Amino acid sequence: MMKKMFSNLMYLRPYLEGSRLLLVLSFGALAMVSLIAMPIPLITGKIIDNLSSPQGTTHFLYQQVIIIICLHVIRYVLSLIGKYYIVKAGTRASNVLRMKMIGHTVDMPMEFIDKHDKGYLMSRISESGSIGSLFSPSVINILIGVLDGVISVILLVRIHWKLSLIVLAIIPLYVVVTVWYSRRMSDSTRKVSESSAEMAGVMFETLNGIEEIKVQGAKQRYISRIYTKTDQVITAILKQNRNINGYMESSSLLSSLSGAIVLLFSGIMILGKTLTLGEYVSFTGYLAKVLGNVQAVATFGVTINPIMVSIDRVREYMDNKDEEFGRRMVLSEPIHSVNIHNISYAYISGIEKRSVLDQLNVNLFTGDIVILNGANGSGKTTFVKLLLGLYPVNKGTILYNGMDISCLKLSDLRRRVSYISQKTYLFQGTILDNILPNAQPEQLVHLRALLEKYQLQPFISDFPNELDTEIAHGGANLSGGQRQMIAFLRTVLANKEMVILDEPTANMDAIMKSRVIQMIENEAFYKILVVISHDPDLFYLGKPLNLGESSREDGGQQFYMKNEDR
Ligand SMILES: Nc1ncnc2c1ncn2[C@@H]1O[C@H](COP(=O)(O)OP(=O)(O)OP(=O)(O)O)[C@@H](O)[C@H]1O
């Protein structure tokens, strides 16, 4: 356990970087807390021996009691300060880790993201809070207790070494109990975390789809899915509690037995005059600290185990390679060619493999406009996702300016490409934020000119606060066509080298659609344009590339391109 804790603390070091001095000072203060309270049982024993001797004086009593009170007050102040700053450092560190985990999740390959529910991912990210728990008052108390315990053992030996041997003989039993239970606790805690993350996944999906669930009358189906997952969580929690309680009760029993045995031997020694009453009081004072702290170490296992399991899981999560792993090359020039050579792709989920694209060849050059069509499910969206490097091709190559996409830094590639997905995702913020993130004055002028040129002012003035209208979560306060137009304007103003539009006009009325077509024809906002559409009104814009089964030539070697000369 200590080894694991040390290794986890080493892992967390970078996240504690900014708070290192604070932590050292706080731990120093807390170590002082331990040391300052240490003489109290000794002083108490001395007072008792003094009072029970003929030389006993009230002056000695007052003096020693004042010392004890001062020690308690200093301990109180140091403890408050130390704990406050440790908790502060822990909270800061867990926040830094949370941000890193969110960033890492965004950078994960889509194949990883597809495999997990969003709620599951959220649960995993929330495990970053485990650092905060590591620096919580309960853990800190236990750590101070460990120091207390060690010093108390030394003082026990100094007071009466023979009596101490009896106490020390019991400690191996604690070790056996601790080791036995801590393995079981690790397993059960892991199961609790995993099943809770899965449950959160199902809950998240349910909450996300409330509208659909209502309309389809699917409430019962979803509730029973949650019930199954909850059942798994409950089973795991019960098992975890069985282990925790077993551990606590066993260590508590050992503590009580130790106290009784010490009382027996001390009594005999007091009767034999080899131990004074004061020494007995001091001894039991330190014994209480030792046993209390052995108990604390036992509790430490219970408290720290879930935290260690969480940190292990955070490490596992962060060890997953992100999509940029091993990619070093950047495009030194604007994209002028995209050569898609014999690519194939199949989605794999579990043992199921769904082949979507098979030996596809396409070459795109500056000035090309390609209209992708084909039956539903024929792989059009998958094709553009491969172009964006969201999924790696299974076979074949995609070359940008002759450079293989598998070596290219994806962030560099995507900086050069604008993509509007079928789902038209809008960010939280205003309409303007969505059209022009970080709008510069000259971009605003460009936007206004565009709105005027294509008679789109009525489109904007339809919103309560025009461009400053706040967009609700997921664009809930906008219609499908409005969302598409906002996303399209964003693309026109982004002025990227390659633009990919997936069903850009699917929800638009005839007027809006005609504006989009005019902008594609008149505005130079792309070098290469790929449009996925089932709408014949858009076909004439460029070379249609049909991905439908019926249009394959050469046994699937080549995809049919209509109107090649257009
Ligand atoms: N993430 C995924 N995991 C597994 N299968 C997927 C995934 N995304 C798409 N598919 C499957 O791949 C096939 C192609 O899907 P894709 O979205 O590329 O088709 P499309 O041609 O764009 O269809 P549409 O015209 O309906 O938009 C479909 O059979 C779909 O079920």
CATH class of the largest domain: Mainly Alpha
Specify the CATH homologous superfamily of the largest domain: ABC transporter type 1, transmembrane domain
Q: How does the major sheet shape up?
A: 5 strands, parallel
Radius of gyration: 35 Å
Helix percent band: 55-70%
> What are the segments in which pLDDT stays under 50 over at least 5 consecutive residues?
549-566
Proper CATH architecture of the largest domain: Up-down Bundle
Widest sheet, order of strands: 6-9-10-3-11
In what range is the share of β-strand residues? 5-15%
Give the rounded overall mean pLDDT.
Answer: 83
Unique bound compounds: adenosine-5'-triphosphate
The number of domains is: 2
What's the overall geometry? elongated
Number of helices: 20
* Structural class computed from helices and strand pairing: alpha/beta
Question: Ends: how far apart?
Answer: 70 Å
- Tell me the CATH topology of the largest domain: ABC transporter transmembrane region fold
Compute the number of strand runs: 13
Protein name: ABC transporter ATP-binding protein
Subcellular location: Cell membrane
GO molecular function: ABC-type oligopeptide transporter activity; ATP binding; ATP hydrolysis activity
Keywords: ATP-binding, Membrane, Nucleotide-binding, Transmembrane, Transmembrane helix
